[in-house]
Sequence to fold (472 residues):
Amino acid sequence: MSIEKDYKSLKKLLKNHHQSHILAFWDQLNEGQKQNLLAQIQDLDFAKIDVWIEKFIKNYIPDVIKTDFVPASSYNSTPLGPDQQRKYAEAVKLGRELIATGKVAAFVVAGGQGTRLGFDGPKGNFPISPVKNKTLFQIFAESIAATSKKYQTDCPWYVMTSPLNHDETIEIFRSNNHYGLDKNNVFIFQQGTLPNFSPDGRILLAEKATIACSPDGHGGSIVALHQSGALDDMKRRGIEFMSYWQVDNPLINIFDPLFIGLHALDKAEMSSKALIKAGPKEKVGNFCLVDGRVTVIEYSDLPDELAEKRNPDGSLVFELGSIAIHIINRTFVEKLNADDSSLPLHRAAKKILHIDENGNTVESEGIKLESFVFDALPLASKSIILQTIRSEEFAPTKNATGIDSVETTRQMMITRAANWLESAGVTIPRKPDGSADCLLEIAPSFALEKEDIKEKLNQIPDIKPSDRIYIS
Ligand code: UTP
Fold:
């Protein structure tokens, strides 16, 4: 079809859906831009878009959160009693076997826009480690390499990007020689996007020939794993489990035998790690049981009186916070795709860069839609939760400064390194407030967990106040 013919039919389509303004700058576009814009319009599913506009914009009523939910139960971070001790030991053994036999893949979601961090480029390329300034991607790659070496296997790594950062991410991996990993074991794929809307339901334009879009949320991973061929690739390799984490958490223990083993022993389809919330209103999702199914209820949706409710021992009734660490079965994701069980969309009112009716770039409040991966939890036939210790596994780099920032993450990396060394018998200089009086970084190749240190004590130098020490 010619451009003009396409233009005419799409113009009619847009008119029927009250989105004619998308072609407002048509006469100012060159042929390439025209073709590009038409292709973007053709990709939009207007039947769905009309429903979203009604539901999330014109007649938006926040979902009524069910009140008949109870806190979810969980495995403690360390076994409680001899029966559990036996089960944990069995789980660790099984987890190790599953890793060693190549049944577990690493899966990081890195398609977000990282607006709060304000870093130019994919967040995974942010330099974070306290001594060597390694990037997040490099830390993960080194952990994966160290795991592959430890278990004498090849652990494949799946990296989800979005159209907004895909090419840059590919280039970062290429120019870093895939951080020493075999590039055939690194599968980088893109998630989808959804258009951005004005508060009155118009699709926004980022430029005269570009529709404003944002990634469809980490829940987009469920469809993207399928559509990209990542699931097929996993099947071909014999992968049964994915270890899922977010790109901004350098403390992640990607291949945790206990977590993998408990998940497999309990025949779960999607499982989660949780931490005990720092307070009633900590901004993490809450693990609950709704109709008997593990469900994450966002902090903003948990009524205050429930958030504040305490057990007789003083602990919070809803104490389990979600940290976006999951084991997900490949077959579970296949099933969700086969059943076309799409995850629900959520609305977020955010500042969006776009052009106004005069073609000038402006930033104004608009609506983004996204799905969340934890909405897959209630769809799993079985789902377990394992508690973890915050200082061991969770340091999200969300902001440039303040809470959950670059600074807090670096400090937590130092704290964990100091704790690991100390528990192996190394003396750590401490400040009066108890924090480590030195900069410390342990290479993943040296230790993936604190137990790895004990065998290598002779390689660790004396650590003096104010030292900067990289242990590799
Ligand atoms: P966040 O919720 O922190 O969002 O993502 P973000 O886009 O990275 O950062 P802000 O909100 O703009 O500051 C949590 C994790 O989910 C991934 C992110 O890359 C991060 O690892 N994510 C988020 C995706 O992969 N895709 C998305 O569409 C959204």
Summary: Residues 3-43 form one domain. The chain has 14 helices and 18 strands.
